From TrEMBL:
Keywords: Acyltransferase, Transferase. One of its GO terms (molecular function) is acyltransferase activity, transferring groups other than amino-acyl groups. It is an enzyme of class 2 (transferase). The keyword Acyltransferase applies. The keyword Cell inner membrane does not apply. This is N-acetyltransferase YvbK. It comes from the Bacteria. SUPFAM superfamilies: Acyl-CoA N-acyltransferases (Nat). Coiled coil: none annotated.
Amino acid sequence: MLIIKQYPHEMEIPYHLLLDADPSKKLVDKYLSCGILFGAFYNAELAGECLLIFHKNTAEIINLAVLEKYQNKSIGKSLISMAENQALLCGYKCIEIGTTEHLVKYYEKLGYKYNKTIKDFFVKNYEFPVIDNGIILKNMIRLMKNL
């Protein structure tokens, strides 16, 4: 049984998942200090996480990760839905996400639309090469969805 809820403060921070989505602990800690962390628990085991932060006019899913053994089971989709609902409850009408090229189609299927490309984002904002699926990342694709 899948349960999605705000991550309990008394539990250890799931860095193994957070750092899978963003390898900079410094950035992850910054986002944790101002965001809402949701956990997806499958039969009481943490299967995934989603970190939602807020800007002046938009909410942003800043971190999203699902353990490999739980991927392709709609857990990421459920976490995104929870983040979208929380953003709506907080009065936001738009939500954003920054991603890599190979995940754009996934988010488009969930109603997200292309906003812009930030050239060399991963090169300029990380002190080390960021690698995903064996590819060194350069550009970030920004997507938005009206809620």
